[in-house]
What we know:
Number of helices: 8
Domain TLC: 37-245
Order of helices and strands: HHHHHHHH
Membrane topology: Multi-pass membrane protein
Structural class: mainly alpha
Protein name: TLC domain-containing protein
Transmembrane segments: 12-33, 111-131, 137-158, 179-202, 214-235
Keywords: Membrane, Transmembrane, Transmembrane helix
Amino acid sequence: METASFNPSSPTTLPSFLLLFLAVYLIGYFLIFRSWKSSHLGSSCLISLFHGTPAVVMASHVLLTTPRASVTPPHSFASPNTAAESTVLDFSMAYFTVDLLHYLIFLPNDFIFILHHIATLYVFATCRFLVGHGAHALLLLLILAEATSACQNAWTIAGYRKHDVVLAKRVRQLLSPPFYLFYSVVRGLAGPVALYDMAMFYGSGAAEGVIPRWVWMSWLVVIGSAIFVSVLWVLRNWVDWFREKNSSKKVK
């Protein structure tokens, strides 16, 4: 029996979360990173930290405590969204909206991140407000996507200051191998497996009459593209890391 299922007339928590992430961004911009030459970069990482790990905890709690979580996972991929699932979607949409504004204002030429955020918002918004089903599958992928968030943001912040602060350079060097490995496993192995399960479930027609074909097909395209780009990104970083290691050996 479903509890607190989707109700199109129910109030959304999105505005409250938008104000939360906007406040965190402004605190980072005007207070925490005000001494940086590019304080907006630190602020973007700050709201990412406020989103990533909390989103993993919230989504995990929801998936583990929802009654259908005891059933074989694929059977939940077309279930009605519960109120708790909708709240997690609102939380993530608020983060991606604020960070998208950050990129549009300060980094308008960073097309990959802008397209990524728009595509992510599209998937979450259609699930939350259009069809009202399928959040279980998206939250599973959200956990995988944000599992590396804390490590990635520490790595990114260290990268911003590696030329100015010796400690930041050392942290970056120390974090790189384990971060790349963790990221490779999550995005390169676990992500595709979860996407395959979704594709098999929706392709079987199990969501017919609940989630329109064009909706779940567009979800698969967006998620598959995101995974592909993520794999390319981490591969490029592995190549750069090995190149730096070889260069340092030659210098010695």
